[in-house]
Amino acid sequence: MSKAIITTAITGSIHTPSMSPHLPVTPDQIAAEAIRAREAGAAVVHIHVRDPQTGRPVPDLELFGEVITKIKSKTDVVICITTGGGLGQTTEERVAAVRKYSPELASLNGGSINFALFHALDVYKDFKYDWEQPYLAMTEDFIFPNTFKTLREFSRYFGEEGTKPEFEIYDAGMLNNLAFLIEKGHIQSPVYLQFVLGILGGMQATMNNIQFLYNSAKEIIGNFQWSVCAAGKHQFRMCTASLLMGGNVRVGLEDNLYLEKGVKAKSGAEQVEKIIRIAKELGIEPATPDEARNILNLKGLDKVRF
Fold this sequence. Notes:
By secondary structure, this protein is α/β, with parallel strands linked by helices. It has a single domain, classed as Aldolase class I (TIM Barrel, Alpha-Beta Barrel). The protein has 10 helices and 14 strands. The strands form 4 sheets. Strands 2-3-6-7-8-9-10-11 form an 8-stranded parallel beta barrel, surrounded by 7 helices. The two termini are about 30 Å apart.
């Protein structure tokens, strides 16, 4: 590829406010960071929202609307809304923003997973808000559910809105899930896959696993676009491997709070600038938002409801 889509995951639902003073929480902060990421060269921004008072991930539709409207008013970036939501949210809560705002792109998790964050308590001991410690601790006994039924229903909602799914693939079995749903006509090809590596409960962040997932997708899905994101210290190594293999990449504070070892990123835009420097050394240019729309066959910014 001569062009790569750079996505930035602005705030996510993994890290808690006590882990970094730079994690955006309020609608103004999230929107400002999305605009800054676009200015740094990102083509796509991935959006979660949080309670502006406590920083807890929430499925609040008004907050989603405020954030994405502010972003759209200032930039042409592709907005990807989460349906992963926050841990413990219902399936109805998770998909509500897609049904209300009809974005061009939204995440859709490819299967259920033991989504574990509790081991962060080995590192982080002091918390600013009462919700943070139990939110992390409960994941020792937490399954992030994405059943065949919810995958089928979510895919129908996406189809009704003309919203492209960005399928989050944490493990190889999720590719088999998608292949089945494609065969049954619930998902249309070509699909957009994002290989998510390094989450406890999912596949390890290794080059062998990127190659394995890519080759498996070629065998059982065939027609797809793809990207890689990776947790924490693995972010830049795995994203560089994706670029070398012709894939796209995602950076951002949802996945990694650091710019380099011992240096916290003050903004996801700093991570965008770093991965673009790496890409250019490899002869790869960042795609513009409109180029990303063309690559992914998105419906266009004029067809959203915000």
